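> call design_seq(struct)
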């Protein structure tokens, strides 16, 4: 990135730059697990996250306004407009005052929700029927917010604790929007053969308006399961980074820095899984997204050259 670009903040995956009256949100290929950034990037992961967020922003804007201004690099101010590496992985967005709550919706019993249910019979203060097993579909989606920690682990919040943080009116609105967004996403994803087990959203205020920010229904913010073969009572295969989590657990890592290096086959399989998630949900080949955003790899150029030569011969 040009030295004239001013970095405003850096998260586990995203970098935020000052961009005049707006901000530029850049999704890197970094991957985190158990709140630790791993040393090995996943090729094109940031573009998958951006492409899926764009897909969902378009399909949820009737529920809530979002922060997107443009993902077209030609609309970016300099020096970003001249930076080819940003194509397909960056969004020009409205500035917002971020609400310090991760808004989580759960439709199935898994992950930390399963652990809390087995220990306490509820998830974030939401009581659930007895006798549920791993991966069970819940009677209805539930709102299970967490703290939004700058570093370290997010902590679960009950609804009343959320009220204490942001006020009752805003807490109720966040719960309403979170469930509505989850239900929309889960319904549309299921049509594509994907179960959205759970997901998280972030919100902020821009010009006094409550808006949806950050990413939406991506493999980083959600658990995606293939619908065919779904069976409660066991873990489900996934289209997210669960494969990386599982490998890290099997490696014996204690979830504290420094993390181990990922084997090449884990990196490759994870990259393929992210791309497959994009293709299943959008119904579009990921290469088409890359081309539409103006990204051509060396292999793409070779393929295009062969196609052009074949066309030239056919027209001769």
């Amino acid at each position: 990135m040009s030295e004239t670009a001013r970095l405003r903040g850096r998260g586990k995956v995203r970098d935020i730059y000052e961009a005049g009256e707006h901000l530029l949100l850049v999704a890197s290929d970094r991957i985190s697990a158990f709140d630790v950034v791993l040393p090995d990037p996943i090729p094109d992961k940031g573009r998958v996250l951006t492409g899926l967020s764009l897909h969902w922003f378009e399909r949820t804007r009737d529920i809530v306004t979002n922060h997107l201004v443009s993902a077209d690099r030609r609309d970016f101010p300099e020096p970003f407009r001249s930076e080819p590496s940003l194509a397909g992985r960056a969004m020009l967005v409205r500035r917002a005052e971020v609400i310090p709550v991760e808004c989580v919706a759960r439709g199935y019993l898994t992950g930390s929700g399963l652990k809390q249910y087995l220990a306490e019979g509820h998830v974030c203060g939401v009581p659930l029927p007895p006798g549920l097993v791993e991966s069970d579909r819940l009677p209805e989606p539930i709102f299970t917010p967490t703290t939004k920690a700058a570093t370290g682990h997010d902590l679960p919040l009950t609804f009343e604790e959320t009220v204490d943080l942001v006020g009752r009116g805003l807490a109720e609105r966040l719960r309403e929007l979170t469930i509505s967004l989850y239900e929309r996403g889960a319904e549309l994803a299921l049509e594509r053969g994907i179960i959205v087990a759970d997901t998280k959203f972030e919100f902020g205020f821009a010009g006094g308006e409550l808006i949806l920010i950050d990413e939406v229904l991506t493999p980083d913010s959600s658990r995606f399961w293939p619908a065919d073969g779904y069976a409660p009572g066991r873990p489900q295969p996934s289209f997210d980074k669960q494969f990386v989590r599982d490998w890290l657990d099997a490696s014996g890592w204690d979830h504290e820095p420094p993390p181990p290096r990922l084997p090449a086959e884990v990196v490759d399989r994870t990259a393929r899984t992210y791309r497959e998630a994009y293709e299943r949900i959008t119904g579009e080949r990921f290469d088409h997204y890359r081309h539409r955003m103006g990204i051509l790899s060396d292999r793409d150029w070779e393929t295009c050259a062969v196609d052009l030569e074949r066309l030239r011969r056919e027209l001769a």
